[in-house]
Amino acid sequence: MYRKPFIDIYLKNGFDFDEAKSEVDFVLDVLFNYSYKDFMLSKKLEDWQRDKLVKIIQERVSTRKPIQQIIGQAYFCARKFFVNEYTLVPRPETEILVKNVLELASKYDKPKILDIGCGTGCIALTCMMENKNITADAIDISEQALEISQKNALFHNILERINFFKSDLFENVGKKYDIIVSNPPYIPLKDKENLQTEVRNFDPELALFTEDEKGIEFYEKIISKAKNYLNDSGFLAFEIGINQAKDITLLIEKFGCKLIKIEKDFNNIERVIIAQKI
Ligand SMILES: C[S@@+](CC[C@H](N)C(=O)[O-])C[C@H]1O[C@@H](n2cnc3c(N)ncnc32)[C@H](O)[C@@H]1O
Description:
It is a single chain. A hairpin with a 5-residue loop joins strand 10 (257-264) and strand 11. This protein starts with a helix and ends with a strand. The protein is 43% helix and 22% strand. The relative contact order is 0.11. It is α/β, with parallel strands linked by helices and 278 residues long. The longest helix has 17 residues, at 47-63. It has a seven-stranded mixed β-sheet, sandwiched between helices. Strands 1-2 form a two-stranded antiparallel ribbon. It has two domains: 4-63, no CATH class; 85-277, Rossmann fold (3-Layer(aba) Sandwich), CATH 3.40.50.150. The radius of gyration is 20 Å and the shape is globular. Bound molecules: S-adenosylmethionine.
């Protein structure tokens, strides 16, 4: 079994088999373009490739740094994105948000989207690759994150349809959009100690935490001003944290929008919320 010596390093350090196997395959694919088919055709790894893989796995098991941050790339909606210590590693749950934005975008001929807190740019860029009529503005408060999102736009060859700029929420936004999408920070700072080591020690704090008790301050700041930045009947699409749907629904009603949909994730947690300007 060609993966065995690598998987064994994980197992000896308390990781489970499925995680170990998927991470070894991920690194083989991303760094060496090495697939299961290569293995079946008996394509051998070079010594330097083995050494590199072992070094990466040793860093992973000794520090618990996410594998994507060690190698600087992640998969999102089956596409590669560059990541670094200033960007959140894109999560599978966020793919549900993308699916919903694409459904909303299909109602428009030329959808205009604003992505607030774009990080790697994974949401806006994926939507644009799936729907060639979308144009987008993508903002973040972190200049380092914006550098990575622009690198991703260049890598996917869609820099001309998207405009990145630094903005503290709507601070530097001067237009209206058909859809405003955001996966904002939603973990109350008081919950930091309960997080997995990978998240607590390596995801950027700016991407995770809120000062308020419930983790909903970013939703309130966005929803309270959204009407000024949405075209008539435009949509708001958010990823949300556990047990936040009820409070966010109240905010949607308070600030003159209507709730359209709440969608659960694979763990049956309410994860995406869609609202419309009325
Ligand atoms: C949870 S991450 C989401 C990143 C990416 N959109 C994704 O889904 O993977 C939240 C992002 O919001 C950004 N952010 C935090 N505070 C912000 C603010 N006041 N204005 C704009 N962006 C902000 C962070 O830098 C981070 O990139």
